[in-house]
Every structure is written in structure tokens, then in C-alpha cells.
Specification:
Pfam families: TatD_DNase. The protein is α/β, with parallel strands linked by helices. It is built from 12 helices and 8 strands.
């Protein structure tokens, strides 16, 4: 696959678990990492007859900002289901809700994915330092910090911990400036902040690509895929990706 044929990469978006096949086709040629908010929701995407696609990657999540998810979290059920997914997300910590319960849930998730070939899309709203504390406590090579608005020191710390970052056009210029270009992936977080991200649907990363191209003067899409190939390689997650996504990853990997 030539670099000019690389599809748009949306490394963090939300799609209803009951999405129809026609709606999946509406995503066009984009590759979308679709987050869920609970194990139950994630498992529903695997039901017989569920809509899927070679460019749609479902994540298994336990969203820290959803009170019911935190309250009903079952660590054993989560651990049992990890092998069915290449992507874990959305998980992490949030400034709202029960701090102690969220930390317990996130620690349980990090234990469940230890040594497993998965990527993790990690939420850190209002809890950037606390999230990094947990990642440092239980490192994983596949951590992707979603919409990370940490300080320069926190970004440096996250980079030293091996983290990658998925970024969108709603982020401030200061936040984007702090993040190394060779650790960036593009995202929409659709449908959140649609007016700020400029995304009309999951996979519509045109605005963030334009913002990053203006800042870095480089081929943003190619760099995003190179970065994704690197984090997938580190985590061992490449082989779990859908065949078409795997093909793109291999096309941007030296010797792939």
C-alpha cells in the first residue's frame, strides 16, 4: 500500500454498540477505534449478526466518568474478556465521581492487561497526574493517553513512561505543542465537542490533520500511522487487529 493510500485514522471515537451495517459503511475508508463504556456494552458488539467492518476496531471499556459503570465493575469479568479484544478503552480516571472506586477499577484493569497484547485508550480528565501514577505503578507498552491536557512536566513524564497520545482539534494550541509529534495519533472523540473538533462523523479527522500539518509542516497521516505501528509493535497488538488494519500497519513498518 502506498503512503498516498493511507486511510484517515481516528484513534478514539464513540459509536453506538447497535450500529447498523449501513452506518458502518458510512464511515467510508476511515479506520476508527470505537470505545465502549462498560464490559456489557463491549460484549454486545461481539454478538452474532452485529455490524462490523475491517476498519472498525471495537474497544472494551469501563469509563471512569460513568457512575453506573464504576459501581457495577466486575474485575473478573473484565479480565476474562480481555482476550477477545485488541483494544481496551475507554478506561482511566476522571475528576468526577468516587475517586477511590475509580482507582480500584483502573488498577484492576491494569492488572488484567499486564503482559497482554492490547492497546489501551486512557481517559484522564482532571486526573492527569493520578493516571500517570497508576501507569508508572503498572506499566504497559500500549498506553495511548486520550485528549491529554497535562502540563509540560506531565507530558514529559508520560513520554518517559512510553505513552502515546491521541489528539483532536478541540485541544488548545498549548496542549498540542507539548506533545511530541512522533507520539501523536489523530482522534475525533466523536460525538463530543463536535463544534470544536470539526468532525462530522467518526473518522473525520480532517481538521486535526490540518492543525498538525500547519504546526509541523509534515505528512500528518503518515506520521500517525507510523506512530500507531510503533505502539502496536511494542504492545504486540498488531496481530489482533482486523486484517485490513494490519495490512496498513505493515505497510508503514520498515521491512513490513
Amino acid at each position: 500500500m502506498s503512503l498516498s493510500e493511507l486511510p484517515p485514522l481516528d484513534a478514539h471515537a464513540h459509536i453506538a454498540a447497535d450500529v447498523s451495517a449501513a452506518q458502518v459503511l458510512g464511515l467510508g475508508n476511515s479506520v476508527v477505534f470505537a470505545m465502549t463504556r462498560s464490559v456489557r456494552e463491549a460484549l454486545y458488539t461481539l454478538r452474532p449478526g452485529a455490524a462490523s467492518g475491517d476498519r472498525l476496531v471495537w474497544g472494551m471499556g469501563s469509563h471512569p466518568g460513568v457512575e453506573q459503570t464504576v459501581r457495577q465493575f466486575d474485575g473478573d469479568a473484565f479480565a476474562e474478556a480481555v482476550s477477545r479484544f485488541a483494544l481496551i478503552g475507554e478506561v482511566g480516571l476522571d475528576r468526577r465521581g468516587d475517586d477511590e472506586a475509580q482507582v480500584a477499577m483502573f488498577r484492576s484493569i491494569l492488572r488484567a492487561v499486564a503482559g497482554r497484547p492490547v492497546l489501551l485508550s486512557v481517559h484522564s480528565t482532571g486526573r492527569c497526574g493520578a493516571v500517570l501514577d497508576e501507569v508508572e505503578r503498572a506499566p504497559h507498552p500500549g498506553v495511548i493517553l486520550h485528549w491529554f491536557n497535562g502540563t509540560a512536566a506531565e507530558v514529559s513524564r508520560a513520554t518517559d513512561l512510553g505513552c502515546y497520545f491521541s489528539v483532536n482539534a478541540a485541544m488548545s494550541p498549548a496542549s498540542l505543542e507539548r506533545i511530541p509529534f512522533d507520539r501523536m495519533l489523530t482522534e475525533t472523540d466523536f460525538p463530543a465537542s463536535r463544534t470544536k473538533t470539526g468532525a462530522s462523523r467518526p473518522g473525520d479527522v480532517a481538521r486535526i490533520e490540518a492543525v498538525l500539518a500547519e504546526r509541523h509542516g509534515a505528512d500528518v497521516r503518515t506520521q500517525a500511522w507510523v506512530n500507531l505501528a510503533e505502539v502496536c509493535g511494542r504492545a504486540g497488538a498488531t496481530g489482533r487487529m482486523p486484517m485490513e488494519v494490519r495490512s496498513v500497519l505493515e505497510s508503514v513498518t520498515p521491512g513490513g
